[in-house]
Design goal:
The protein folds into two domains: 288 residues, Carbon-nitrogen hydrolase (Nitrilase/N-carbamoyl-D-aminoacid amidohydrolase), CATH 3.60.110; 36 residues, no CATH class. 31% of the residues lie in helices and 20% in strands.
Length: 348
């Protein structure tokens, strides 16, 4: 059955920082205020002349980042489960308006005590939770890679890198700077992903802006990228701005873009899944990046690559960012041994 073109809208919403609140009660009040603003913008989009079937919210939009808080403190201060109090409100909005809602939160789980996750989620039009992706490539936060053996025992590869088949097509999610890691989008494409939802909370970085276009084009996917309004989460005083929400088609062409950082729902476009499917099937030339991919030639290099040490916090969860320093040092050493990095000469 063919899929009619459908509208996606980026909800470029502002975010107050819960880390500035004195305790969990006050932090949850901040989260509720952020939810109120997100709901207001979603409802304006739904009641507009071009109502969307799917809306996407930015990364960190409800809680903000922890700004150096220790892991246990951040879990106590602002984290919650999926499903939980953040998704419950959005599930109600999705049911009320019959829309898909993509979002992001810092997730704690009773299955993994002492750890939290940088997690994306997708809610369906009946209010059901369709997808949860816990970010693998992190810099300041815990990752499933930190306790990989235990995590892979509990979850299949398809659960770790999930793609969901919906009435809108096959959807997947990648948060913020992880769009710079080609392998994440690749493994999602290998499972048939046709649309990447990209909640982000980032300053202007030319490399990341280019990565959005490249990930879409090299995998023949649509990419829907919603950034925060106003100051980004890592800017305590709000002086470093967000904006630049972007919708990109499977050739890398821009369908909608907003350079400014005002709160808005103006980044909206029609997503033509049938055009994507036709292009993937019929384009036998060099513009189809999937057709002639020679995966077998690359596998020996991936099989031997091991730089950032897995299972660095297998037995004991990461306590804070400082605990990653010896892990990063080991990664650098491994890259030097592999010839990726040049060793620093003595006296330099």
């Amino acid at each position: 059955m063919s899929i009619l073109s459908w509208r996606a809208t980026c909800i470029q919403a502002p975010s107050r920082l819960s880390c500035l609140a004195p305790d969990r009660v006050a932090a949850q009040a901040v989260v509720r205020a952020n939810l109120d603003e997100a709901q207001r913008l979603i409802e304006h989009a739904v009641l507009s002349e071009a109502p969307p079937r799917l809306v996407l919210l930015p990364e960190f939009v409800f809680q903000g980042p922890p700004h150096g808080m220790k892991v246990a403190d951040w879990i106590e201060h602002a984290c919650c489960s999926i499903p939980g109090p953040i998704t419950e409100r959005l599930q109600h909005i999705a049911r009320t308006h019959g829309i898909f809602i993509g979002g992001h939160q810092f997730e704690s789980s009773p299955d993994w005590p002492g750890r939290y996750f940088n997690s994306c989620f997708l809610i369906g039009p009946h209010g059901d939770l369709l997808l949860r992706y816990r970010r693998i490539n992190t810099a300041a936060f815990p990752s499933p890679h930190d306790f990989m053996d235990a995590y892979q025992t509990a979850h299949t590869p398809a659960q770790i890198f999930p793609v969901v088949d919906t009435e809108l097509g096959r959807l997947a999610m990648i948060p913020c700077g992880e769009i710079n890691v080609p392998e994440v989008a690749r493994v999602l494409m290998m499972q048939g992903a046709e649309v990447i939802l990209h909640p982000t909370n980032s300053p202007l970085r030319p490399a990341q802006e280019a990565a959005k276009i490249v990930r879409a084009a090299e995998n023949a996917m649509f990419l829907i990228s919603a950034n925060v309004a106003g100051g980004i989460g890592f800017s305590l005083d709000g002086s470093i701005k967000g904006g630049r929400s972007h919708i990109i088609d499977f050739t890398g062409a821009t369908l909608a873009f907003e350079a400014g950082d005002a709160a808005c729902h103006s980044v909206t476009a029609l997503i033509d899944i049938e055009a994507l499917r036709t292009a993937r099937r019929r384009d036998t030339g060099t513009m189809n990046p999937l057709l002639r991919a020679r995966w077998e030639m690359y596998r020996p290099f991936y099989a031997s690559a091991s730089f950032y040490p897995p299972n660095s916090f297998l037995e004991t969860p990461m306590a804070d960012v400082a605990a990653t320093r010896p892990v990063i040092a080991a990664s650098i050493d491994n890259m030097i041994k592999a010839g990726v990095l040049a060793p620093i000469e003595q006296g330099s």
